[in-house]
């Protein structure tokens, strides 16, 4: 996989019993780009996200993440089924057993991929800053002794995590709300807090599932600015699912279009806008609005 690519998805399949949510999905994402995954309802967009982030174990295909200085086979680290030839290949068996025992979605996040959800999933009874500290739990000093003795190293680490939390609050313009309960924020602020929380896990690729859903035009504009800032000032790669075509066409460098679990087109906004397959499949009803 070329170094220019941060994600490569090949022949991805996801079947739920008889339902083929994804048939044969192929696309790749360039580092430091903003890409969008679009398609009609039920096309399989969220299923792709769930496979990328490890919420679903894909039925077949491969997902390679090239982040944090190494290449990660996402399907492998989630723990694959044993194969017949494992028993004659001890190394392969050992690796599969290891990931069966200790693998999971946490390894995908550690490999440099974070996500937000279609339905906001904050800790609503916690303050804004606490939400960001929870996201950094793995980076904290978890030594019981250091905590009880409140050592210098422990305090320094706590301060570092707080600084990091405020850094991302600044980026999403929520510093003023740091001590408010997350559940008390407006919908738009909660969406931005979700992005900050995901960023606190130090990803290189962030997947945003319908980040503009329920936002008014001013909030959508502010969100677009934040997404651009992530790419331009923080070297983050963004992959988003979005139904707001105005926003998608405005901020995306690359667009992948799904229909019935297949990629029917991919390219830049202008190419996608004028692609007859896309117009017929997805934009048909809104053709005039999009053009
Ligand atoms: N856990 C599941 N069990 C069974 N079927 C599922 C499951 N998750 C998704 N599907 C099916 O897979 C297909 C794709 O669903 P998915 O939610 O990925 O679509 P989507 O493109 O994200 O749609 P939307 O834009 O409405 O969010 C649908 O037919 C859906 O019913």
Automatic annotation (TrEMBL):
Respond yes or no to whether keyword 4Fe-4S is given for this record: no
Pfam families found in the cross-reference section? ABC_tran (PF00005), BCA_ABC_TP_C (PF12399)
Listed under GO cellular component are: plasma membrane
Has keyword ATP-binding? yes
Q: Which UniProt keywords apply?
A: Amino-acid transport, ATP-binding, Nucleotide-binding, Transport
> What GO MF annotations does this protein's record show?
ATP binding; ATP hydrolysis activity; L-isoleucine transmembrane transporter activity; L-phenylalanine transmembrane transporter activity; L-valine transmembrane transporter activity
Q: Which domain of life does this protein belong to?
A: Bacteria
CDD domains annotated for this entry?
A: ABC_Mj1267_LivG_branched
Q: Name one GO biological process term.
A: L-valine import across plasma membrane
Task: Output the InterPro entries linked to this UniProt entry.
Answer: AAA+_ATPase, ABC_AA/LPS_Transport, ABC_transporter-like_ATP-bd, ABC_transporter-like_CS, BCA_ABC_TP_C, P-loop_NTPase
Every copy of the ABC transporter domain together lies at: 7-285
Q: Which family does it belong to?
A: Belongs to the ABC transporter superfamily.
Q: What is this protein called?
A: ATP-binding cassette domain-containing protein
């Amino acid at each position: 996989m070329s170094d220019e690519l941060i994600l490569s998805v090949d022949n991805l399949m996801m079947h739920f019993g008889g339902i083929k949510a994804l048939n044969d999905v192929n696309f790749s994402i360039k580092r430091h780009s903003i890409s969008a995954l679009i398609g009609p309802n039920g096309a399989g967009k969220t299923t792709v996200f769930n496979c990328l982030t490890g919420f679903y174990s894909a039925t077949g295909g491969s997902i390679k993440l090239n982040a944090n200085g190494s290449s990660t086979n996402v399907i492998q680290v989630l723990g694959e089924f044993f194969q017949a030839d494992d028993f004659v290949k001890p190394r392969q068996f050992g690796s599969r057993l290891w990931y069966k025992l200790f693998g999971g979605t946490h390894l995908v996040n550690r490999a440099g991929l974070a996500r937000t959800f279609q339905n906001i999933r904050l800790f609503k009874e916690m303050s804004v800053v606490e939400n960001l500290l929870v996201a950094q739990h793995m980076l904290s000093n978890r030594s019981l002794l250091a905590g009880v003795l409140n050592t210098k190293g422990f305090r320094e680490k706590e301060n570092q995590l707080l600084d990091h939390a405020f850094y991302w609050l600044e980026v999403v313009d929520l510093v003023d709300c740091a001590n408010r309960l997350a559940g008390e924020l407006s919908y738009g602020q909660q969406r931005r807090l979700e992005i900050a929380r995901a960023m606190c896990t130090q990803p290189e690729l962030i997947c945003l599932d319908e980040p503009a859903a329920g936002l008014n035009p001013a909030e959508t504009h502010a969100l677009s600015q934040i997404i651009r800032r992530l790419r331009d000032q923080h070297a983050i790669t963004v992959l988003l699912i979005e139904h707001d075509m105005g926003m998608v066409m405005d901020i995306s460098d690359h667009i992948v279009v799904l229909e019935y679990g297949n990629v029917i087109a991919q390219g830049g906004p202008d190419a996608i806008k004028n692609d007859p397959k896309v117009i017929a499949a997805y934009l048909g009803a809104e053709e005039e609005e999009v053009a």
